[in-house]
Amino acid sequence: MELPKYHETFIPILEILNSVDSLKSRELASRVRDTYYSYLPVELLNQKTSSGANVLLDRILWGKSYLKMAKFVSYPQRGFVQITEKGKSRLAKGNLPLHDLQNDKDFINHRESVISEKENEIELDAVNVENASPQDLIDSGFSSIETEVKTNLLERLKEIDPYYFEKVILILLKKMGYGDFVETTKSNDGGIDGIINEDKLGLEKIYTQAKRYNENKVREKDIRNFIGAMSGDTSKGVFITTSTFDDSAIKKAREAHHSIILIDGAKLVDLMHQYNVGVQVKTVYEVKEIDNDFFEEN
């Protein structure tokens, strides 16, 4: 006997959720374990990861996360999970192979909205275990975890208060090494959300604009207004959004006399992850190797 793979928990998860309005994530994992896998030996049910987490519950929670990416389930409120109409339709078919989920349009769109170019080179769960080296497996695992964290981070950004989102951006720029920042008055910011010093002495200033959008793209008009709001004391600006920029907005920023940097949702969570803004270290793993110098005789 062996523990189920995370993708083998898809249908059990959907079946449990189909019988209730919504459940807390941890309660969902426990119900799936108790309903479908209680027959497993105790030593398997109690198996732990190197960080001390229960392996089976961890896999069920990963299964839930993948279902969320493909919109088979949703998070109606923080910490809760609910089956969607799409999930109910799929459950009626009685199966959901991993291949089908990976080729689902919603899953692909969701993944592309948060992954970086580097991560895009690593296909999700595409590592052949038999042919992969231990380092390949580690890299693939870390990539999957990083993508999941960035996915959740982008979702949280889209939920927070727009004014707090503007402050998050200034905190991020500060962490990236820029100087002190000033938040503009919210009632009349004139298209400028913040002013940040490019250097510690404040010799150069950068204007920022932050748009917390769910689906809407930033358009050419938004860039034009941003440029118009930049006063004569600076020619540099950063426009950040949780969504994306349409082609006309990108063209406008590129052709402007000002230097305008555009940061979309994927790039934003990349930077927040890199500079530890809104995230924290959960576990540190040590990979050791033989110290050959230790065995060298003088």
UniProtKB/TrEMBL annotation:
Any single biological process term in GO: DNA restriction-modification system
Keywords of this entry: Endonuclease, Hydrolase, Nuclease
SUPFAM superfamilies reported in the protein's UniProt record: Restriction endonuclease-like (SSF52980)
GO MF entries: DNA binding; restriction endodeoxyribonuclease activity
Protein name: Restriction endonuclease
Location of the Restriction system protein Mrr-like N-terminal domain: 6-92
Domain Restriction endonuclease type IV Mrr span(s) in chain numbering: 157-272
